[in-house]
Amino acid sequence: MLILASTSETRRKLLADAAILFEARPSRVDEAMVKDALLAEGHGPRAVADALAELKALRIRAPGLILGCDQTADHEGTLFSKPGTPEEAVAQLRALTGRTHSLHSAAVVAEADRPVWRHIASVRMVMRRVSEAYIEDYVARNWDQIRHSAGSYTLEGEGARLFHRVDGDYFAVLGLPLLPLIDYLIARGEIAA
User: Fold this and answer.
1) How many domains are contained in the chain?
2) CA distance linking residue 114 with residue 157, whole number of Å
3) What range does the domain containing 144 cover?
4) Mean pLDDT to the nearest integer, 75-103
5) Model confidence band, residue 27 (pLDDT cutoffs 50, 70, 90)
6) What is the per-residue pLDDT across 136-186, written as a single tens digit (0 to 9) for each?
7) Distance CA 131, CA 127 (A)
8) DSSP letters along 7-63, please?
9) In the structure, what pLDDT confidence band is assigned to residue 108 with cuts at 50, 70 and 90?
10) How does residue 8 score in pLDDT terms, banded at 50, 70 and 90?
11) What count of other Cβ atoms lies within 10 Å of the Cβ of residue 77?
């Protein structure tokens, strides 16, 4: 059985909907500290997502396969994390409106305390220009959902209205490059196809 090193509702739903047996366990990682250290060392948003996914997978001590995931929003090399406040969410969306950014979704599978598989999917997100009033109303209506999302939106909800185009893997936008993970699990004989 796969262990998901997260309690993310979205990732849990994706795995369950794909009929992958798993157990969710939270991985205790100080994400802000790790991000700050990696950024100070000159690593970009894509590398931060990869490093955090690996660290989350390695923090769970258990037999079997452990899946760690992380996602970062990347606007011209600047990392946008999960917003800490509604005001921060408004500021992030204000910076992204009418522009293009990337979401980097990293997944790392660890076994016996070492990474055995990794995949990073980058998705190009083209946001339409939206009004300041709409941004403020969107954040107020959706704060409970978007506070857990890099970039301050969820594409699977009202956030779809923010976008003109999305180039890449939809599952990666949701925070898990599911199809490459399924390919890996099939190749290992963990699941059938």
Assistant:
1) 1
2) 36
3) 2-187
4) 96
5) very high
6) 999 999 999 999 999 999 999 999 999 999 999 999 999 999 999 999 999
7) 12
8) --HHHHHHHHHTT--EEE------HHHHHHHHHHTT--HHHHHHHHHHHHHHH---S
9) very high
10) very high
11) 9
Element (H, E) at 146: helix 132-146
User: What is the DSSP code (8-state) at residue 157?
Assistant: T
What CATH number corresponds to the domain at position 128? 3.90.950.10
Residue 116, class by beta-carbon neighbours within 10 Å (0-12 exposed, 13-18 middle, 19+ buried)?
Answer: middle
Pairing between strand 114-127 and 100-111?
Answer: antiparallel
**In whole angstroms, what is the distance from residue 183 CA to residue 179 CA?**
6
Distance in Å from the first CA to the final CA of the chain: 16
Q: Which residues are catalytic?
A: 70
Q: What tokens were used for 2?
A: 């796969």
Pick from 74, 36, 75, 76: nearest CA to 52:
36
Query: How crowded is residue 158: how many other Cβ atoms within 10 Å of its Cβ?
Result: 15
Residue 68 lies in a domain: yes
Reduced to 3 states (helix: H, G, I; strand: E, B; else coil), residue 98 is coil
